[in-house]
Amino acid sequence: MKIAVVILNWNGKKLLEEFLPSVVAHSKNATVYLADNASIDDSIDFVQHQFPTVKIIKNTVNGGYAKGYNDALKKIEADVFCLLNNDVEVSENWLQPIINCFQEDSDTAIIQPKILDYKNKDYFEYAGAAGGFIDKYGYPYCRGRIFNTIEKDKQQYEGVTDIFWASGACLFIKKSVFETLNGFDESYFAHQEEIDLCWRAKNLGFQIKYVSTSVVYHLGGGTLNAINPKKTFLNFKNSLYNLTKNAKGNLFFLVIVRLFLDGIAGIKFLLSFKPSHTLAIVKAHFSFYKNLPELYKQRNKLAQKIKYYNKTSIVWQYFVKNKKTYNSL
After folding, report:
1. Are residues 7 and 102 in the same domain?
2. Helices 229-246 & 275-301 angle (0-180, nearest 10)
3. How much is the pLDDT for 167?
4. 211 by DSSP, 3-state: which?
5. Residue 40: is its pLDDT beyond 90?
6. I want to staple 128 with a disulfide (CB 3.0 to 4.6 A). Which of 43, 115, 234, 241 is the partner?
7. Chosen domain end from 218, 253, 288
8. Using CB atoms within 10 A of its CB, is residue 24 exposed (0-12), middle (13-18) or buried (19+)?
9. Is 199 left (phi over 0), alpha (psi -120 to 50) or beta?
10. pTM of the predicted model, to two decimals?
11. Confidence check: pLDDT of 221 > 70
């Protein structure tokens, strides 16, 4: 099985200095690529001189995560792509469990490893943890992370398990499946495009797995951190895109409920003296409504919708019923 580990980078020389050594050292049975999104720092020169075995693909523009990978992966021949953030440290035996899973189950299309926090390695990391799920209204959550509650890794999420979405921080996908899905939706730019990709894969009947014996450590926030309103804008906007394009059921009802729930989130930001984030949610909704006709066209073109949730409202479970961990839901 030919694996290409593809690291998307934009002005990330400092991150590459810290994280690329582990990827190169522990990926002997794969080819490592740097897909550079038109960086203006010394990222490419650094990699060329310090890690000559890493192949470099130069994207002509910074199209974000979605377009960046779409452009780069067209130039790579492999059976499986590993999409890896430039702020991820990998462990010594991270690839073999993934290869074994793909070989043992031909229906598996996408795999996520266990993602732990680089700064606190006993805990799961926000972006993916032990595999992702989604509630009826499009809010994502993970085994090991619900909203801002992060669990300690006590081996409570071990083994190979079916999940709904895999984190874009470290996502393995068969090339054939990526091409069948026509890659990422470039209108997302960044954040939650991997949920859309996985959702579309699920609607086509593909399986997505979590493999605990493959472990990586993610710094998180390397490009946009949690205090950046742009991240809030992208997360809320793209979550609405996901729901509209892919969700089974009465779309009007789902959007009305989201409008109410997102309004509460906006008030909460306001009361926390974060008005820029409240404004970001408002802008996200206006952007969504502006693009709703096109999203609705996509909805009608995409595959038959499946039931996508096993919890009606993670907001209700977390904030009202005080269920803070996945196993307590």
Report:
1. yes
2. 20
3. 97
4. strand
5. yes
6. 115
7. 218
8. middle
9. alpha
10. 0.94
11. no
For the cut 70, the answer to whether the pLDDT of residue 296 exceeds it is: yes
> Phi then psi for 6, rounded to 5 degrees?
-115, 115
Cα distances (angstroms) measured from residue 180 to each of 22, 175, 206, 296: 32, 9, 11, 21
Report yes or no on 224 lying in a domain. no
Evaluate if residue 250 carries a pLDDT over 60.
Answer: yes
Q: What angle in degrees, to the nearest 10, is found between the helix axes of 251-271 and 229-246?
A: 170
How many structural domains comprise the chain? 2
Residue 271 resides in a domain: yes
107, pLDDT greater than 60: yes
Same domain, 259 and 158: no
Q: Give the domain range for residue 185.
A: 3-218
State the Cα–Cα distance between residues 188 and 203, nearest whole angstrom. Answer: 19
- pLDDT category at 96 given cuts 50, 70, 90 is very high
Are 250 and 177 found together in one domain? no
Distance (Å, whole) CA 40 – CA 26: 28
